[in-house]
């Protein structure tokens, strides 16, 4: 998604045990999460997301 053509970002923390998303303190870095590019498929295909 670094090509500027990304569409949707899904962050489902139910699937990431030990992760808690909290607001970053002002002026302290940025939030980073692991990213996986999903292949293009027909509408309704979730590519193993759930």
Sum up the structure in keywords.
little secondary structure, 0% strand, flat
Layout: helices, strands, pairs:
Layout: no helix or strand
Model description:
By secondary structure, the protein is low in regular secondary structure. The chain has no helices and no strands. It is flat.
The global form is flat
How much helicity do the residues have? under 10%
Q: Which regions are unreliable across 5 or more consecutive residues at pLDDT < 50?
A: none
Mean pLDDT: 66
Number of helices, counting only DSSP H or I runs of 4 residues or more: 0
Protein name: DUF2797 domain-containing protein
Short description:
With 50 residues, the chain is mostly loops. Helix content is 0%, strand content 0%. This is DUF2797 domain-containing protein.
